[in-house]
Amino acid sequence: MKAKLLLLALVAVAGYIGFAYTQDQYPLARLSDAIEVVIHGPQARPVAVAAVAPATPVQQDLAAASDNKDVLVLSAPPRDGEEGGIKRFGPIADYLSEKLGRKVVYKNPGTWGGYQSDMQAGAYDIVFDGPHFISWRIEKLHHNVLVKLPGALKVVGFVRADNKRIKEVSQLAGQGVCAHAPPNLGLLSLQSEFDNPSRQPNFMIMEGFGAIYQGVIEGRCVAGIVPKKNLLQKDPNGEHTRIVYEHSPFPQQGFTAGPRLSAEDQKKIIAALMAPEAEAVLANFRQAYAFKGEFVPAANAEYAGLGIYLKPVQGFYTNLAAK
């Protein structure tokens, strides 16, 4: 009897998985993500980057908002949970609602898999995130970049200062490298330095730049990959670490707007975000991103070609490219 019940359960699961794939969903990726959390928790774990697939989120409220022509959806990566996202972007959504005369709502995607899936589906009208995402949306979803943070985004790979063996980036093949999970630009930019799939760094996934730094200092990883400014905050004089890799500077993180906003509306957003009256609205945003200057205008051409870093991440240049 037990054997029959087990067989029926397996048949049901197989049927569900088959149906889910016909709906362009990824049930095994969601199951894998859940198992990883149970087994590993927040600790470092190795990841095969090319195999990482976005989980398909269940966000009926987001779909409903996107279907309402009078409601615009603002979103950003789920870096600090829903509460942190609301604190950071909720005031910006309310402010833009006032300036546009259209309702703008902030939606936290919950997970990176949800963020990727919703972005690929075109569910977001206004987005703040990194240069590779900006480039991809310009190319695939007809977004325009509006404003960006000042300066450049510099990504570096570092080892401990007493590590005399690693002298260049090619020597990181097969070595443990602490990094944020894909689609983090640091990890993807370092991965792009290795053409041979069998000769890649062994990425150890960490949460937070501080955890990446400590992972290297404590010897859990041979190297780490972080924005240069974050490394300098931890080790300003290079007493404890040594940089072995530095990518050419990327344009900074910025806001984009999609085709549901007219050219006139996009100009209004630029003016609103750069206006002195936005100062109070941006207070929590500034604190979260250590943003002390002013937004600067941005152009699509600055971000051309950077979406290619997302090629190893499922859905960006696979499913959607064929649609």
Keywords:
323 residues, alpha/beta, D-Maltodextrin-Binding Protein, domain 2, 2 domains, 6-stranded mixed β-sheet, 39% helix, globular
Question: What would your notes on this structure say?
Answer:
- This protein is an alpha/beta fold and 323 residues long.
- It has eleven helices and 14 strands.
- It has a six-stranded mixed β-sheet with strand order 1-9-8-10-7-11, sandwiched between helices. Strands 3-2-4-13-5-14 form a six-stranded mixed β-sheet, with helices on both faces. A two-stranded antiparallel ribbon has the order 6-12.
- Helix 4 crosses helix 10 (263-274).
Secondary-structure topology with pairs:
Layout: H1 2-22, H2 27-40, E1 45-46, H3 60-67, E2 71-75, H4 81-100, E3 103-106, H5 112-120, E4 126-129, H6 131-141, E5 144-148, E6 152-153, E7 155-160, E8 176-179, H7 185-191, E9 202-205, H8 209-217, E10 223-227, H9 228-234, E11 241-246, E12 250-251, E13 254-257, H10 263-274, H11 283-289, E14 296-297
Parallel strand pairs: 2-3, 2-4, 8-9, 8-10
Antiparallel strand pairs: 1-9, 4-13, 5-13, 5-14, 6-12, 7-10, 7-11
Helix pairs in contact: 4-10
